[in-house]
Prior knowledge:
Blueprint: H1 2-13, H2 15-22, H3 40-50, H4 57-71, H5 79-88
Helix pairs in contact: 1-2
Amino acid sequence: MYHECLDELEPLVGRKRAKESARFFKTYNSKIQADVSFNMRSFANFQKLRNSEHAQVEIRHIAEEMLALVINLENKPFQHTIAAWEESGLIN
């Protein structure tokens, strides 16, 4: 199904987007999993780039969820950082 989807979508949306859509037909064990760690500066840059209206929708959802997890950490260790980001317009 992956290859059939790829063949049908590629002429319509281009190779890159077709591959992205066709990956949902791959089996679960072939999907990519990754553990990622950030320092706060890198996390801010990730949020700036990937939590924007111009970012790919799927990645934007991941960025939103990551930000929510950081905001809702127990004892709010990053409350001042988050407040500064909100004030500067980095996040909404």
